[in-house]
Amino acid sequence: MSRVVLSGYYGFHNTGDEAILEATLALLRRCRPDLELVVLSADPAHTQHCYGVEAVSRTRITAVLQALRHADLLISGGGGLLQDVTSRRSVPYYLGIMELAMRLGTRVAVFAQGIGPLQYALSRRLVKRVLSRVDWLSVRDPASMLLLRELGVTREIQLAPDPVFALQPPSRPEIVSCRRKHGLQDGEEEKPLVGVSLRPLPGEKDGSHFYNLTRAACLYLEREKGARLIFLPFQQNEDLETGRSIWADLSPGHRIIEESIPPREMLCLIGGLDLLLGMRLHSLIFAAVCGVPFVGLPYDPKVSAFLNLMDEEAPSVPPELHIPRLCKQLELALERGEGRMGELAARVSAQKEALEAMVQRFLPLL
Predict the structure, then answer these.
(1) Is residue 358 part of a domain?
(2) Are 178 and 272 in contact (CB under 8 A)?
(3) Looking at the 3D structure of the chain, how many domains does it have?
(4) Which of 78, 216, 242, 95 is nearest to 160 (CA)?
(5) Are 280 and 300 in contact (CB under 8 A)?
(6) What is this structure's pTM?
């Protein structure tokens, strides 16, 4: 039986990264049901319980060594692992896992990685040195491919969809059950239900242009469209403070999800929306998978790349983006017709098919 180890930002209860893991495992199981799967996790007990896989601590070097020594393949990614903005430790950690695997004779596939930003010269040198030597390399957007070329990585690089596109949309009974669980009672169907997924913008504080912009958008949805709003944090320790600050200016009665919830539950919540206003990339992908209209706030090139992929208008980033333009986009999204949503469904379906083909390309490494 072939053994595969998965390395990513797993076990930190970030909804987007947990969705990447769930989708990747599903893809691998569909393509090769016989695989033995092991996940390097920050919370091995949680990962093992939720996904039915073997999981080991990502920081226990002896456990990592043992997992890699007995593996046929290491899959690194997806997600934005190789960047040094949130932490200078990310790049050496994930590249170190790849280097360790190669030294042990385990093949390495880099799957749908987002590369950058890379602020430090050491990060750039390490990325070039290690990724030039892995067995198979794919990135999730053209900007990541361009950055690797600029760094001097000359080997073949494939463009892979984000694994989260492979998730199956929820059924109507799943959506209804989830709405009831979170206190979203029936009887107010005439009021649009709008989800909001925000995150702190790196380098900005409350009172900034971007904060005021998103606050104004929520007030517009409440007062002009009569919307019920539900705040959906994808990373509780980062997103909740932003959500609470904006919610304090709204009327009572809007919902805020305070607890960490699994990807499937978040997918069900988003599947029951009339509109999503999102900064978090995976909140937007969830909406696309569910066929829910969305407006993305491109705080990062990865969000702009997604909007371009879906043929959606990408609002300018602050300070060019202004309140009237954003409000107009929200209004148009709420009025979006079936024809446009059919086009979106076709684009999502194409990403699913591309993912299946991509997995089939690197599994022969086994």
Answers:
(1) no
(2) yes
(3) 2
(4) 78
(5) no
(6) 0.94
